[in-house]
Amino acid sequence: MSIQPIRITSAFLCFSALTACSTQQATSPETYVNMQPGKLFADLPDSCPTPDAFAINPKGGLTLSCPNFADGSKPGMLLHLSDDGEVSEISTIPGHKARPMGLAWGDDGTLYVANNAGKHQGSVLRLSFNGNKIKEVEVVATGLSSPNGLRYYNGQLYLTQLQLPKAKTPKLSSAIYRFKSTDRNIQIASDLSSSHILFKTQTQNPSRQFGLDGLVFDSKGNLFVGDFGDAKIYKLELNSSGELTSSSVFAQLPLTTGIDGLAIDNKDNLYLAGFLQNQIYKVNTKGTYSLIADYDDNDGSNGQIDQPADVIVYNNKLFISNFDLMKGPGMINSGHSKPYTISYIDL
User: What is the rounded CA–CA span in Å between residue 80 and residue 54?
Assistant: First the structure.
């Protein structure tokens, strides 16, 4: 019998001995002994009602994307979070209908943005700065249906598309695309025809047809990506040119998870946002997972985890964006409300 947590409903933590985990789980979980309460890091302004993805700013602090899907009248916004939790607006993205999601800083101090602006209107943008102001916006790729997770590694960009609506496959297809950071105005169709596709899959879960989402590199250059609907984490091995050499299922989480953002620590442990159930999981280097935070429906006001979209390891803490928007079957979240928050867990 394994020890599993009762959901955290206040600032304290409760444990109870319950039954063993579902037999649907292909990877055996660790005993749940490391539950961590979420703490409030920052309250966000009205310009950011739906915080999404993080990136570590090369000058210090965190960059946060806010697609603002909760209010179509508000443009997408980029924010800066200082180490002590001070929040400041960077800017909207000039000249573009922008709904920024995945973020990645390049080696030269430019910021790449997965812009989920609508069906076949999405793009990957390159932002250069003059001080703290956006100086120029260039288009790396366009025509995307659902650009989501984004990583920069060795001069190349790795992007997930959650859905490929034009792919004529039995189940929903999704893919990882690879671009050179020097690419400009690459046209992408929402099918499987692009030569920029690095990896593709079909999500088998009929009740959750959303595919590849969060992704992250480990210290050895392996790329990990989560399938939202199937709750799988894939491990992709790449050669020195960034080309795929092998792929495998690294971990299988419960189908109730909804794997969104992925992060990694300096020991190559993975952390993932469980979007559907207000959960945070840790996955060790052997692919064994443990649940480290688990919350009922809440408003996030005291640092509770409230529909987590992304996670990032920074300053020995795991930062969590509380998207707090979607509701429906299989989701703990019951609606969107203030406050808009960033939580953290001490590691």
Answer: 10
Q: How far is residue 133's CA from residue 22's CA, in Å, rounded to a whole number?
A: 50
Nearest to 230 by CA among 248, 214, 252, 246: 252
Print the SS3 string covering 75-135.
CCEEEEECCCCCEEEEECCCCCCCCEEEEEECCCCCEEEEECCCCCCEEEEEEEEECCEEE
What single DSSP character describes residue 213?
E
CA distance 334 to 315: 32
Question: Which is higher by pLDDT, 73 or 159?
Answer: 159
DSSP string, 246-266: EEEEEEE--TTS-EEEEEE-T
What is the spatial distance between Cα 57 and Cα 51, in angstroms, rounded to a whole number? 17
Residue 338 token pair? 């203030």
Read off the pLDDT of residues 161-216 as tens digits, 9 standing for 90 and up.
Answer: 999 999 999 999 999 999 999 999 999 998 999 999 999 999 999 999 999 999 99
Cα–Cα distance measured from residue 257 to residue 228, given in angstroms and rounded to the nearest whole number: 8
Contacts 24+ apart (CB under 8 A), 12-21: 12/37, 13/37, 21/254
Q: Rounded to an integer, what is the distance from CA 23 to the centroid of its chain?
A: 27
**Residue 287 φ/ψ region, left for φ over 0, alpha for ψ in the -120 to 50 degree band, beta for the rest:** left
Residues for the chain: how many in total? 347
Tokens 């990583």 label which residue?
151
For 61-92, give one letter per residue: b (16+ CB within 10 A) or e: bbbbbbbbbbeeebbbbbbbbeeeeebeebeb
What is the amino acid identity at position 241?
A: S
What does pTM read for this prediction? 0.90
The conformational region for residue 41 under phi > 0 = left, psi -120 to 50 = alpha, else beta, is alpha
* Residue 240 in tokens: 């020195």
